[in-house]
Amino acid sequence: MEIRYKSTRSDVTVTASQAILQGLAEDGGLFVPTALPKLEKDLSELVGLSYQDLAYEIMHSFLTDFTEEELRHCINSAYDSKFDTEAIAPVVVKGGVSYLELFHGATIAFKDMALSILPHLMTTAAKKNGETKKIVILTATSGDTGKAAMAGFADVPGTEIIVFYPKDGVSHIQELQMVTQRGENTHVVAIRGNFDDAQTAVKQMFNDRAFGEELAAKGCRFSSANSINIGRLVPQIVYYVYAYCQMVKNGTVKVGEPINVTVPTGNFGNILAAWYAKQMGLPIAKLICASNVNRVLTDFFETGEYDRKREFILTSSPSMDILISSNLERLVYHICGNDSDRCRSFMEELAKTGSYTITDDMRAGLTDFRAGFASEEENFAGIRDLYESTGYVIDTHTGIANAVYRRYAAESGDQTPAVIASTASPFKFAVSVVGACKPGETEGKSDFALIDLLSEISGVKEPQAVTDIRTAPVRHDTVVDVAGMPDAVRNILL
Ligand SMILES: *Cc1c(COP(=O)(O)O)cnc(C)c1O
């Protein structure tokens, strides 16, 4: 069955490869599949597959205009020794909960799961569509996407990548990872503003026709490495199926039995991939959406109103400091009966007034979701409890999911086997994590001293990504105002 991709805001459709190449639809909507495929094989047949073979099973049902050879080439180029474990995304069981470790790639955050394959999908898509222009990847980052995207696109022929990050909105390690990025085609720009400012300005540049023409005249075209690109979401479906298979293998569940999935959420991409996995037939009972104190999604699931008019709070889980969760638009589209007119009017209302409220019939489409948020204190207390009871150390984003899940389980009594998406290595957020595990011991210590201490208390060797930035020279130091972002792009490209 051919699957095409249409905008959440109109009825034009394109092929999978065109959707990946474009990133965002011309009307500002996001591309969604015209049908959601089912798992083609029995789960019992998938259990023994390698990550790469499973990735092929899942991805080929979505990316139907890629040949088997093309897709397998993309998969094998992505999921290789850049990952520090052959399992690629191992599940570990600690304190009665399964943690799906998605941080074994080059930049030690879950963004590597999709961004190590996106450049291959995109260059393949360019070839298939006879695209000769240079592809310029514009990316707004809350800390992890930027580095992972640059690692993926660095020195890929025919591409240029520009990353915008909030100057005061990322961890020191995240910033160091970005500003030391190598590759002639990589560019990093700090902005005086927050992640939402960066993401909104990037979307505006995509939709600015005159700017697009200016670039086209210079032989360039924009695309996106943010999770608004469907080429980010499809690879993320794979690891939920893979997690389930591992839980079958280690005896946590029998084939067919349900699991609950908890995801630390920001832009709503990762949890949406879990929802797609469920639509494919993966036995997921509850999808638990975990937020930090920027609790816009918790409120949405509780009341049906999405209201971004609130204070933007910087937290120790910076990759989730987001008030405009772009991918929620895809879910809104699906629960309003795949009706792009209705979806568009909600999004117009959001842009105009800062909020919208879905209808009761739409809320009925959300019954599989639960949502909750955790404060800094709850996050740190949960990280410490897990550490003290098991010796296992999680990062501050996984910590949010951990706190939200454990509260949900205690309050609901739901004993369904649980998996938590573990989205970053604790080494990326060592200051907060050591502060949580060993209160009082961070005083006066440098980031790298805390990394040493983390290695000691967790018994985990420092990842290569951290070793690399200890000595790497800073290559990027541009800082601009939000209004200066288009000119920053011109300075780089034109
Ligand atoms: C990006 C990110 C998230 C949020 O994921 P979304 O797909 O944006 O919801 C959570 N944790 C970490 C570590 C991240 O980098």
How does this structure look, described?
α17 (376-390) packs across α18, α17 (376-390) crosses α19 and α19 (430-437) crosses α20. This protein is α/β, with parallel strands linked by helices and 494 residues long. It is built from 22 helices and 16 strands. Pyridoxal-5'-phosphate binds next to α12. Pyridoxal-5'-phosphate (PLP) binds at residues 109-111, 144, 227, 264-270, 319-320, 397, 423-424.
For the largest sheet, list the strands in their spatial order: 4-5-15-10-11-14
Give the helix/strand class: alpha/beta
Task: Give a list of the ligands.
Answer: pyridoxal-5'-phosphate
Q: What does the oligomeric state look like here? A: single chain
Query: Which residues sit in consecutive blocks of at least 5 with pLDDT less than 50?
Result: none
Strand content: 15-25%
Radius of gyration: 21 Å
- So what's the overall shape? globular
SSE blueprint and pairings:
Layout: E1 5-7, E2 13-14, H1 16-22, E3 31-33, H2 43-46, H3 51-62, H4 68-78, E4 91-94, E5 97-101, H5 111-115, H6 118-128, E6 134-140, H7 145-153, E7 159-166, H8 172-179, E8 186-192, H9 195-207, H10 209-217, E9 220-224, H11 230-249, E10 259-264, H12 269-279, E11 284-291, H13 296-303, E12 305-307, H14 328-335, H15 340-353, E13 355-357, H16 360-363, E14 369-373, H17 376-390, H18 396-412, E15 418-422, H19 430-437, H20 447-458, H21 464-471, E16 478-481, H22 485-493
